[in-house]
Amino acid sequence: MPDKTIEVVALNNIDAASYAKKHGMTAQNKDLRPAIAMRIQGGELGRCDYMPFKTEPYQQVFEYVFDDRDPAEDCPNMTETNGIKSIKQAGFIPFDKDLAAIILNDFRSGQKRNVQLVVVHCYQGRRRSPAVAMALNNAFKLGNSGMDPCKPCREYQGYNRFVYKTMMAVAQRMTARQE
After folding, report:
1. Distance in angstroms (rounded) separating the CA atoms of residues 14 and 123
2. Residues 165, 139: contact at Cβ < 8 Å?
3. CA atoms within a 13 Å half-sphere pointing along the CA-CB vector of 48
4. If exposure means fewest CB atoms within 10 Å of the residue's CB, which of 27, 30, 99, 137 is most exposed?
5. 149-157: which pairs have CB atoms within 8 A and are 24 or more residues apart?
């Protein structure tokens, strides 16, 4: 049965910094919805300047580091494994199955604490955070009943398909092991 009490939101760095304020999420607000933040930073040799991120309205802020790379886009004539190796050799930090499992387990820990809001953000909010948010939504069957399931795909057409695909594959393996 889908848990429809958790809202997963994908944002860019600027929106994430102001999201809590816009939605009355302050440490003093007694009606605060339990929330966690998942912050994705790039390892692209420090090329991205992130705004300071206030952690006070969130029960926990998880931080992950991986670059916005997709082996199918970056290395179209290579196998996925060789594409990932090539991305690493170029000095980038690729997304992988281990990181997908960490993100999925962090989300599960939020579920156990009755979190109602998960804010996922990366620098631009167009590729990595939508991929993670859509994968969490689909893997844990959150919402989307009565909604057009392709709406997020249309809103974030450029989402990182490799991140999404990897997270979904790991989520399916984790679910199969639990059954």
Report:
1. 8
2. no
3. 19
4. 30
5. 155/130, 156/10, 156/126, 156/127, 156/130, 156/131
Q: Which residues of 127-154 are buried (b: 16+ CB within 10 A; e: fewer)?
A: bbbbbbbbbbbbbbebbbeeeeeeebee
Q: Which CATH class is domain 7-178?
A: alpha beta
Residue ranges of the chain whose pLDDT lies below 50:
1-4, 14, 26-30, 144-149
Q: What angle do CA 60, 62, 65 make, to 5 degrees?
A: 165
pLDDT, tens only, 32-59: 667 788 888 887 655 555 555 556 677 7
Rounded Cα–Cα distance for residues 11 and 126 (Å): 8
Distance between CA atoms of residues 61 and 53, nearest Å: 10
Calpha distance 122→144 (Å, rounded): 23
Where do the domains of the chain lie?
A: 7-178
Q: What pLDDT, on a 0 to 100 scale, did the predictor assign at position 58? A: 76
Residues 6+ apart with CB under 8 A from 36: 58, 59, 60, 61, 62, 106, 110, 115, 117, 118, 119
pLDDT of residue 29: 44
Cβ atoms of 138 and 167 closer than 8 Å: no
Which tokens in the block code for residue 83?
A: 């594409």
CA 1 to chain centre: 22
